[in-house]
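Sample A.
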Amino acid sequence: MNSAASLVTGCFRMPRIGLGTWKLEGADAISAVLAALEAGYEHIDTAGRYGNEEAIGQGIARAGVARSRLFLTSKVWWTDLEPERLLASVERSVDSLGCDYLDLLLVHWPNPAVELSNTLSAMAEAKAMGLVRNIGLSNFPSRALSKAVQLSSEPIAALQCEYHPYLDQSKLISICREARIAFVAYAPFGSGALLSDPTITDFAAAHGTTAADIVLEWLMHQEGVAAVPRSSNPQRIAANLRRGNISLSSQEMAAITALHRPDGRVFSPSWALDWDE
């Protein structure tokens, strides 16, 4: 794994840019994975809920990339957090992907109806069984994250949440830095809204690059932050990894950060816990 393009927190290392695969299914998922691996990606992010793990596994197999070169993340859905269901979910993911283990297993969304300590114990068991190498969380607000850190017998390696310039996640990121947890941004372009934002497009024009590159550079300038942008376009997939030779000034960084707004969150399903803002 290329350390220059990796995020290191404690003893945990992961590629800072990964391929997000939500809504990519069948042939689209296979072709996206093939394009990503050809472009040099090492991190593929999926979930049992996405229904595409088998297709992703087919893409990896077709690419012929050694398992040791890959970092695979998957997630357990919030209705499968009881220990027996969680372990069955992990085994399905590993089988569907055609791999021996996951590099990172995340709780997809918290479920207050299930004792968090039981869920974390089951994840630790999955690690002891060799099914996963690291455990983490997704879509946990700060109070739930802090509780998980206290309860878990295994280090919480990563937290994956929606994050982009329209959504302030400074509270969560601060907790992650203090606890040496990697923060992974999904929906980094705000489901595309940021790609037409005047501040972003003006900076893109000034740097001779794209709006997507500006947003990703803003993320990569932040300590402890990784990102998993989703795309099915081979050219865009490759561009997200390369990003060109861009350096944002402190003034540009501050201007982009200042874009956050109260209605900036895109994803807030009915089963989500109360957010921090």
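Sample B.
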Amino acid sequence: MRAIQKNDKRLIRSWSMFDWANSAYNLVITSTIFPAYYTAITQTKENGDVVRFFGIEVINTALSNFSLAIAYLIMAVALPFVSSYADVRGRKKQMMMFFTYLGSLSCMGLFFFKLETLELGIILFVLAAMGYIGGVLFNNSYLPEIATTDQQDRVSAQGFAYGYVGCVTLQIICLVFILKPDWFGITDPSFGPRLSFLLVGLWWAGFSTIPFKALPNNEKSAIRSSKKLFRTVVIEFKIVWRKIQRMQRIRRFLPAYFFYAAGVQTVMIVAAAFGAKELHMENSKLIITILLIQLVAIVGAIFISKLSAKFGNIKILITLVYVWMAICVSAFYIKTETSFYILACVVGLVMGGIQSLSRSTYSKFLPENTKDTTSFFSFYDVTEKLAIVLGLLSFGVIEQVTHNIRYSALSLSIFFIVGCVLLFRVLRFNKALTA
């Protein structure tokens, strides 16, 4: 393994290209074209918004939310052991590649997704999510290795900015096929969205080759490799867990992150479905709205990283969480498309900032020259994934019970309130350290 030169601009650009590559999944599959297409094909005159999945009747949007929750739950359980394995065997990059190709191939398979193949489509949807989750973990773990502490906010923001530009670029390409099918002689209305899923997989796998070529592998763990693999992995996991238990700032930050991440990630996932069901917006308008969110998020990520340098990460995170509370309450009351567009711009502004700043904040809390970065970041990613499971399940259950998605949106404000209270706890601890 070659040594990493921190703050190397060329290496940082290559690392950022992974965000460019995989953010296409997050936009097209999680947020825009797939939710719009899924809602359209599963909403029928005969059954309304109820579908039969392996013989079980369930509301269509609840099914997609439950499916994502299962994917996140599986990965939440697996990530600590997968990351420990990568650290023990020095195979961080290989595992990053495995999850990337799992996700990209699953997206390609969604080209064949129609109502009559609902079960297969949902399975591929779950696998694509698992691939994305795994890839992000390993990509995040490179952050403290490629940038010094004083540069991590900027580098994290750059990665998210690359991601937003990349996904918007592919989204525009996909929109051409969806909104102007006659230009290509397309007569099947489902072909444009399904082609978009195929293009996501190709884009994801193709551009990921850039960071794969540039990023080095990690060194093997100091634990003796002569032990049985499973036992070695468990030992590595326990070592990192004990270290985290002694890191007071991380112990306080992760619970706060858990709650506000539950709200943030759920809002991002269900935004398109909310607009379609409550405001009856056309698919093209929903897609363009989410596209607008990504463009605003580029500005938000960079601007908020500059604010954090002036006021401190935790103070800015608290401010952002206040804004997210207001977003949830506003979503309960909005009635018009114009108000939805305004709310979408606010979401975009704070979305990029809170994601980027959360990642760099956790990275800053790690000790200097930490070697087992993958294992350490697995706890950050597991926290986020468990938060998404809680957010999606609560959102889906409330909608299933009330048949009103607005109550689900309003309930997310509870997560932000708890997260904000816990962030103040982190702020007080940081002040005590510097007093």
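B remarks: The first helix runs from residue 9 to 31. The chain has a mean pLDDT of 86.
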